[in-house]
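re: that chain from earlier
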Amino acid sequence: MSQPEPLATTATLYEESLEEIRSVYLADERPWVIGFSGGKDSTVALQLVWYALRGLDPSERHKPVYVISGDTQVETPVIVDYLTASLEMINEHAKAEGLPISAHKVTPDLGESFWVNLLGKGYPAPSSRFRWCTARMKISPANRFILERVAEHGEVVLLLGVRSQESATRAQVMSLRRIKDSLLSRHSTLPNAFVYTPIRDYSVDEVWQYLLQVSNPWGRDNNDLLALYRNSSAGECPLVVDTSTPSCGSSRFGCWVCTVVTKDKAMEAMVDNGDEWLEPLLELRDFLADTQNPKRKVEVRQHVRKNGGVMPKKYGDKEDPFVRGPYTLEFCQELLGRLLTAERRVREMAPDDQQVQLISLEELLEIRRIWRYERQDWHDRLPAIFKEATGQDLELPLDDQAFLDGEDEALLGGLAAEHDVPLGLVKKLIDTERDMQGLRRRAKIMDEIEGTLSQEWRSEGDETLLQEMEEAEAAA
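^ sequence. v structure.
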């Protein structure tokens, strides 16, 4: 198969790219890892690599090319399906052509997933000031794959579909890390990993022109990609190649739960352009974003921070003197119910060929474990929440560990009130003892107990606590 001819105006640019890619590929034995998001830039980069390798003699294709795609597990379902199908087609066509290309999906570890952190541990919805999700869900899974290849091969070259024209900051960073007299740059954090950016000098118009003029070698129709961009950006497009070409915009696809942006314009545009079945996701995302409102923070977040202490606001706030911590357990439970209800509604409304899973069984079980053993949910509410939202029973594993329940909590609550001891403290101490039970060496149990006792257990309305906060503010 030969490469179709692009428009003459940019044919030279594309041919130079192919020659450069072949030169870098043949220069050493370091395997390549290509970051593939399924978007326009990474698609152009992978297509160029594909055609460059196709132009080599089979004996010259001497090192593997790994294509990796990150699935945060909270991507928009439409994008997940598109990307999953693309990876399958890449593997199928690469094998058929005898190319050393293999596609892999990387996902966050269970303990780093969005729902385990947000619903289980109570992490608040991400914001520009606390963007905890990126490192856990995107960077770590990709870096883990890259480091495994480094361990296997010694060094790797990471190919990224990034362009210097995207922003002045990106252009500066790309320039600073460049190795002298080389097309490679050093990776900012990963040892023995180098970076190559084959489309660094492309404009957005040249990217779209290439996609619409050069056929996709693994069998996708790039017009489908064009449609995704158009439907997620309300009809705007940076390039029109002829009068029959509809416009599309420069919107980025990402997590449907993203609350870093004020509004999810891409999701809103998808709903407006016919994907009404996504509306429950948009509603839940907006509900999450609303928890960043200062007035809502008081209602849904603990006054005690993750480390067990409290922190007064710098400049004081009579309505809320606390720098808020994680979501309360009660709000996490409400939110899980909303999530499961949204999942059921989306499945009822989605097209027959659309697969939808917003939260996995493994995540549900891990959230239940955290609630029971780390957040003292002795009532074990998760199975009931699942039943109410879905109408089905949750598949629970056998658990032979002794566990206290709601009746025990009621009994302890009476005793705690009688002796003026916070119930939460009593429950935490009992759970700490249970966790250490059966261990041969219990040397750390006193440290655990001391740590528990040193945490703040008073309610946020406790007068002595509020007085201490005022004094701390005055001293600051």
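The CA atoms of residues 205 and 239 lie 6 Å apart.
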